[in-house]
Amino acid sequence: METLMILLIGVLVSVATYLVLSRNVIRVILGTAVLSHAVHLLILTIGEVKKGEAPLLGNQTADGPYTDALPQALILTAIVISFAVTAFVLVLAFRAYKTNGTDDLEKLRGDEHD
Amino acid sequence: MMNSPLMPIIIPFAFAILLMFAPKQLRFQRAGALVGAILTVAASIWLLQKVYIDGIQVVTFGSWPVPYGITMVSDMVSILFVLTSSIITLFTIWYSFRTIGIAREQFFYYPGVLLMLVGVNGAFTTGDIFNLFVFFEVLLMASYLLSVLGGEKIQFRESIKYILVNVVSSALFVITVAMLYSVVGTLNMADIAQKVSDVNQPGILTAIAILFLVVFGLKAAIFPLFFWLPSSYSGPPIPVLALFGALLTKVGVYAITRTFTLFFTGDVAFTHTVLLYLSVATIVAGCIGALAVWDVKKIIIYNIIIAVGVILYGVATYNDTGLRGSMFYVVHDMLIKAALFFLVGIIVYITGQTNLKKMGGLMKRYPSLGWLYLIAAFSLAGIPPLSGFIGKMLLVKGGFEAEQFASGIWILLSSLIVLLSVIRIFVYAFWGKEQQLSPIKKTVYWQIWIPTAILVLLTVAYGVGADALMPYMTQAAEVLANPQLYIDAVKGGK
């Protein structure tokens, strides 16, 4: 199971890298979103994907081992953080498009050293 | 009081929240920010004394037993960073009153500054690796706001790149933490430090060490990862730039110092040699940049990169003298970089431009500014009675003790290049033929001159009083050199 997950994460990271290296701002932002998905899946995988109950103590029928609760909390934290940053970047890209009149990163280069 | 390590984090946080209630009230904003920063500095000084007398201060949230709760640790290293950051934020707020512009002040500028201080102080104080990530994001979020606030064309252009680089490096940080968790099964730094020696998997741990170096190197702008810094720091206005230049890269430096003295001490021959080469290469890259540009802001910006290399050199040599030198140098460098950015800000305010070639003859009309700049420049280069000297001397001595003669000599030579690069500003802007200047308000000039002068005097006092500070630095180097001290303090000697 872990091997399968790692392969999927590898694919996601490759896709993200490809997108981040493109010229269009929106594609770059999509790339960072895919990258954050990959990262969150990696945390989940790294806590070992073993069969176990959902970590809810109130679940009376369950008596077996529970899944590791810590990676889930880490992912939850990482998700809200990357959500906030993505929202910020999207608005920034919108404003930058309105101000600079382009979404092409090649054209957003600074002045050369004088 | 048990919660003393939290004070430098809670105080600016409380004031930032308070300031958000009335963004348009200028007086309230300024007074609130100033009071918040002063209280933070006071709390940090108090905590410094407490750590100095009583030893390392530890708080675990919710009174959970140690590896299970989040621990905040104030040892001498972190409190020195915290105190310096708080002082710089205080001066930046003071300097901002006349320079940042009312439109920015009325749009959550001061809450942004205080929240960045929260993130920075939190990152220095935390004892939990995932909590470090969260505090990184706190300070990065605030820095995104500050870098784009005002909405000029260049700010939009540069902050897009700045944010993208940081988003990618944050993702890498989480990947690295995930891998470390899978190897050691814990997130508490003291617990990790103890377990890395138990798990006995040197190969994978060395790989994680290098990943951490990449992650924190992106924040700290070390050699192959500094490419984003010169352009993205040229976007924001001067007070924000001073804050970024003094604090943000130093958070990365602190994180490298912490991880490479606490976790990754197993394979020093490899990891610290990599760090040594990278730090020397960082200095080379910074020197080339500092000599190549004619923009006054960028000259100082490239000097940030040089200083990062110099500080990490002390960590790489990994002996008592070198670590002490690093601690001396990092405090000096944070103070002097802020002072230099303030000075450059005044020069830009007077001349109305950043191009060095179009300046000249300022000495006649602004002699006090000229002398102040000269002191700061000499201090940066490390001329003996001033603050840069003692740190660099210890660093070079530590390098020689580790038998790294070539790199030690290169550190000395790089001082000459640093001196040349900053003296160039003095020669071109203050000497030479007087240029036509547009009239400026004299009161504004003096109002931004005063905080700058006090900060420069502070660095002079730091250099002259190095002897009095030596016990603090020795204690800091001791903690860095013996991770067991840190582990025992957090885990209660178990």
TrEMBL record, chain A:
Pfam family, one: Oxidored_q2
Main location: membrane
InterPro entries cross-referenced by the UniProt entry: CPA3_antiporter_subunitC, NUOK/Mnh_C1-like
Signal peptide bounds: none
Compartments where found: Cell membrane
Record carries keyword Cytoplasm: no
Keywords of the record: Cell membrane, Membrane, Transmembrane, Transmembrane helix
Membrane topology: Multi-pass membrane protein
Transmembrane segments: 6-21, 28-49, 69-94
Top-rank lineage group of the source organism: Bacteria
Family recorded in the similarity comment: Belongs to the CPA3 antiporters (TC 2.A.63) subunit C family.
Listed PANTHER family: ANTIPORTER SUBUNIT MNHC2-RELATED
Protein name: Na(+)/H(+) antiporter subunit C
Organism annotation: Kurthia populi
